[in-house]
Input
Amino acid sequence: MVGGLKWWQRVVLAVCLCALALPLWFAARNVHRFVDGDRTITEGYVHCESDDRCKGTWRLPDGEQGRGETAGLAFEYDEEQVTGIRIYAGRDWAVTERSDLAFHAASEFAGAAIGAALIVSVAWFKSR
Output
């Protein structure tokens, strides 16, 4: 397949295949978080920006304190000063729904597979 490609097409093919490592890296990170995180609750109030980027703190089961952005929270949590929000978290990340991690990992794996199929099929047709 690669033999029928021009030199610059081989370079483009290599760059595109290497670029597929990015969604695979994100998918692997989400799988790791899905397996390695802990259920906990927030400590104190969360602070949310108007674009629904919320930050807060939480206590992990090993006694360590986590801190960072919590995905899945809305601005209303800050306005209403809600405490004790159930989250799934690690030391520097948190999500409100653990299933979001699995969904994002699956979509990233699927995107990488579709991208690889597209890149290989284009290269195969160009090499003929």
